[in-house]
Amino acid sequence: MSVYTQVTRSQLDLFFSSYALGDVTSFEGIEDGINNTNYFISTSEGSFVLTLFETLTVDELEHVVKLLAYLAEHKFPCPISLPDRQAKVLRQLNNKPAAVFKRLSGLATTAPSIAQCREIGLQLANLHRCTKNYVFPVKNSNDLDRCKMLLDRIASRLSATDRELINDELLFQTANRPDSLPQGVIHADMFRDNVLFADNRISGIVDFYDACTGALLFDIAVSANDWCCEDGDINDDKFAALLSGYESKRPLEQLEKQHLQTMLRAAALRFWLSRLEHQLFPRPGEITRQKDPLIFRQLLQQHRQENCASLFRPKAGSSYFQPASNSRHQTNSGDLKCDINCRRSS
C-alpha cells in the first residue's frame, strides 16, 4: 500500500455516490505497503478502504476478487470487494481500477509474539487447505526468472560483493530447487503489515494481490522470514511456533522438510532483490514507504551460513529438517555449507 495516485474530496464524493455506503465524511492516505494506492474512507454508514490498483489489470483483478469471495464463503478472515448500485465490484477512478472494501477490525503488529507466530502458521495452513481444490489461474511470477530479471535491472548499481552473492545464490537455487513440491494457492506476501490482530487473534489478512498458484513451502518461507525475524536474525522459538501452528492443520511432507532451508533462502533472495529495485528505482507518489532491503540480505546470509539443525527445535527422535541429497552445492562467497547429515562442513 501507499499513495501514488492522489484523489480529491470531490472525486471521492462522486465515486461513492455509485455505492449505497453513505456520504463521505473524511479520508486519509495509507502509508503501509508499496504496490497500490490506498485510502481509509469514513462515511455516514461506516469505515472502508478504497484501493486504486497501480499495475494490475481488470482481468487480473477479477481472479483475485473471485478468490476473496471464495475464501470469505469458507470463513477465512479476508476482505471482500463491496458492490456498487449496479452490482459491480470493480470501477475506474483516475484511470485506475478501483475497489471498496469494508475496513476490518484490528491492528498490525510490529513485534509479533510467539503466540502470534503460531497463529500465522495455523491460518496459513487454513488457507492452503481451504483452497486445496480451488483452481486459481495465476502463475507465480516471482520465480527464479523474475529474480534474474531484477538482477539484470539493478546489477550496475550494486557492489561487486552483492553481485557475487546474488549470482552464487541463483546458481544454488537453480541446482537445488525441486519441481515436485506440493502446489496450491499461496498468498506470497503474508508480512506483518498484511495481517490484523484483535485480542491477540487474527481478525483479517489483506493484500492478496501477489496471490498465485505456487509451492506451498514458498508461502511458509516468506512468512517465516518476516514473522520470525528479529534484528535481521531468525528467532528459533518463533520459527518453531509458526511451524507447529502450520503442521497442526497440514503436516509437511518429507520433501518439504528437506527443502525448507532452500525455500527460506529463495524467499530472502526474492525480497532482497525486489526491495533493492524499489529503493534504486522509486516510484513517485504523495505518500510512499521504503522497506529496508538489507534485512533480507542479512537473512539470506544467515540461511546460507547457519547450522541447519539450529533453526529447528524438533521433538526427541524427530527432525523438521533433513537436507536434500543434492544440497552440497559449493558456494563462492565463503559461506559454510551443510552436508547431507546437516553438519557444518568446512
Give your account of this protein's structure.
By secondary structure, the chain is of the alpha+beta class. The protein folds into two domains: 9-102, Phosphorylase Kinase, domain 1; 114-345, Aminoglycoside phosphotransferase (APH), C-terminal lobe (Aminoglycoside 3'-phosphotransferase, Chain: A, domain 2, Alpha-Beta Complex), CATH 3.90.1200.10. The chain has helices at 9-16, 58-73, 114-130, 144-154, 160-176, 216-227, 236-247, 254-280, 294-305, and strands at 24-29, 37-43, 46-52, 91-93, 96-102, 183-186, 195-198, 201-205, 212-215, 229-230, 233-234, 337-338, 344-345. A hairpin with a 5-residue loop joins β12 and β13 (344-345). α3 packs antiparallel against α6 (216-227), α3 (114-130) runs parallel beside α7 and α8 (254-280) runs antiparallel to α9. The N and C termini lie far apart (44 Å).
Write the topology of this structure.
Blueprint: H1 9-16, E1 24-29, E2 37-43, E3 46-52, H2 58-73, E4 91-93, E5 96-102, H3 114-130, H4 144-154, H5 160-176, E6 183-186, E7 195-198, E8 201-205, E9 212-215, H6 216-227, E10 229-230, E11 233-234, H7 236-247, H8 254-280, H9 294-305, E12 337-338, E13 344-345
Helix pairs in contact: 3-6, 3-7, 4-5, 4-8, 5-8, 6-8, 8-9
